[in-house]
Amino acid sequence: MAGLQPQDDLLKMSNRESWKMQHERLHVKHRGHEAMHAEMVLILIATLVVAQIVLVQWKQRHGRSYNMVTLLQMWVVPLYFTIKLYWWRFLSTWGMFSVITSYVIFRATRKPLSCRTPRMVYKWFLLIYKLSYAVGVIGYLAIMFTMFGFNVFFRIKAEDSMDVGVIMLFYGLYYGVMGRDFAEICSDYMASTIGYYNMGGMPSRNLSNDVCAVCGQRIFVDVDEEGIIEDTYQLSCNHTFHEFCIRGWCIVGKKQTCPYCNEKVDLKRMMNNPWERTHVLYGQLLDWLRYLVAWQPIIIGIVHGINFSLGLE
């Protein structure tokens, strides 16, 4: 009975007290191993530096293969942890996103391309982009709400409000990255199929003044006119496009050149108000997050392998 007493006391403790006791035991266990810990930190820093150099060189020399491998890892790595940790809520949203996006990609890669497909593709990924942006902002606000203690006024536990904020922030950023990457792939396939855009050379078709090079459909609204559903946008190279098409091409599909002549697009001119510029900053944040989610677990795994081979714990 005496041997069971510490275990019974541990069960009666709160989660915070239990975590504090386990943390103290961990300090006792690793006391006197400072030299080994310093060596492990050096291995971690060296691995991160080498990995960063390799990834940057790979991206510059073989950008297409780098993007495909990164996207595959972004898609698979969270799935592995989801199944391992029984995160069924994330698995359900991941499954719905994967099914719908797979259908969209299927439609975007068919030849001949349906005239309705480009608009459908851009509408889907623009919806994902806006939803991920909104969910991410709400998650960030929930975290700030908890850190400043406003949860006390609504009698919400700090752990609960913080968990909700972190989960929503992760959902928003993750699906934002996935949507932009898949949109880029679909943009290349559709534009190449239509013939007004070629990733590696000159377009195979001449572009008329009243045709949008992104979707291949006619433009019925003049640049100076105000459209009922959408306006017509003209780039500095004087090529005109449907407003939704060129916004989807540049902001969601990550293309910063004209779909026809490859002249660089000034994204600042496309922003009607200062609030829209946050979408560009959000896109840059998603590009940074891609490295964190896709490659960080692999780099940490390599570090653990090196430590294990050297006998470091």
Instruction: Tell me the structural class.
Output: mainly alpha
How far apart lie the N and C ends?
Answer: 35 Å
Residue share in β-strands = under 5%
**Biggest sheet, spatial arrangement of strands:** 1-2
The 3D shape can be described as globular
What Rg is obtained from the alpha carbons, in whole angstroms?
25 Å
- The counted number of beta strands is 2
User: Tally the helices: what do you get?
Assistant: 10
Average pLDDT, to the nearest integer?
A: 77
- Catalogue the unreliable spans: none
Query: Biggest β-sheet, characterized?
Result: 2 strands, antiparallel
Helix content: 55-70%
Structural description of this entry:
By secondary structure, the chain is mostly helical. The chain is 66% helix and 2% strand. It contains ten helices and two strands, in the order H-H-H-H-H-H-H-E-E-H-H-H. The chain has helices at 5-12, 15-30, 34-61, 63-85, 88-108, 117-147, 158-194, 243-252, 277-294, 296-309, and strands spanning 232-234, 240-242. A two-stranded antiparallel ribbon has the order 1-2. A hairpin with a 5-residue loop joins strand 1 and strand 2 (240-242). Helix 3 packs across helix 10, helix 4 runs antiparallel to helix 7 (158-194) and helix 6 runs antiparallel to helix 7. It starts with a helix and ends with a helix. The model has no long low-confidence stretch (mean pLDDT 77).
